[in-house]
Amino acid sequence: MGAHLPTLDPGVTVLESDDPTALYRLVGRQLAETDGPVHWLDARNAAVPRAIREHAVGRTADRVRVARAFTAYQHYELARDLPRATSLRSSLIVAPNLAALYAVEDVPDAEAEPMFDATLEVLTELAAALAVPVLVTTDVERERVRAAADRLLEAADTRAGLRFDGPTFGTDLYRHAWGYQTTIPYWANLLGAADATDERDAPTAADPAVPGV
Question: Is the N end or the C end of the chain the one with fewer CB atoms within 10 Å?
Fold first, then answer.
């Protein structure tokens, strides 16, 4: 998969992106880099088998175990079952649209609030206990989810491709069907930035002018 995608560290990572492929690409990289199962706590039918396989290498998508919820109550029960379903072999826990089902009108706030809090607590505690990455997305309750997370990862569509930005990662290499597109930061990181104080590179009066500069 390569350096054009960030590595998911243990802990809770909130992914914020308008591009739905960002989630599948990160899951695909994790599948390629690890051997254990990926546990997917699904809401709003985010677990699309075709999309998961499109961004997975070979048959690695077979290691994705989807638990699909259609109501807040189902989501809550599936979250409670995660400690029994996961193990130290687990390579990733994915929970897209984390708060969506708890925000629907037919779930009373008196029930939705404690269920959502408990679900969020399960994910944060599993991340710590198993030292496993937990990748979540959400369109509601963003501040509460961010406060409970270890880091924020943003992905934005650019003319060169999907750019990821996080605390320790910024995309500087874009992969395309025809090859790779590099950036100036990529070469600066690879070769090192030029030292502006280096006398060998400093211009002198004898230096010829460069047309167009």
Answer: C
Asked if 14 and 152 touch (Cβ cutoff 8 Å), the reply is yes
Residue with tokens 């963003």: 142
64-106 residue pLDDT tens: 999 999 999 999 999 999 999 999 999 999 999 999 999 999 9
Q: Are strands 11-17 and 92-95 parallel, antiparallel or unpaired?
A: unpaired
Among 104, 73, 55, smallest CA distance to 94 is for: 55
The two tokens of residue 212 are 């167009």
Question: How far, rounded to the nearest angstrom, does the alpha carbon of residue 205 sit from its chain's CA centroid?
Answer: 51
Residue 205's pLDDT is 38
CA distance 83 to 68: 16
Distance CA 16, CA 153 (A): 6
Q: What are phi and psi of 72, to 5 degrees?
A: -60, -35
How far is the first Cα of the chain from the last one, in angstroms, to the nearest whole number?
A: 39
CA separation for the pair 84, 78 (Å, rounded): 10
SS3 content of the chain, % helix, strand, coil (to 5): 35, 20, 40
The yes/no answer on whether domain 11-180 falls in CATH 3.10.129.10 is no
10-residue block means of pLDDT along the chain (213 residues)? Answer: 75 95 96 97 98 96 98 98 98 98 96 98 98 97 96 84 76 51 45 48 39 40
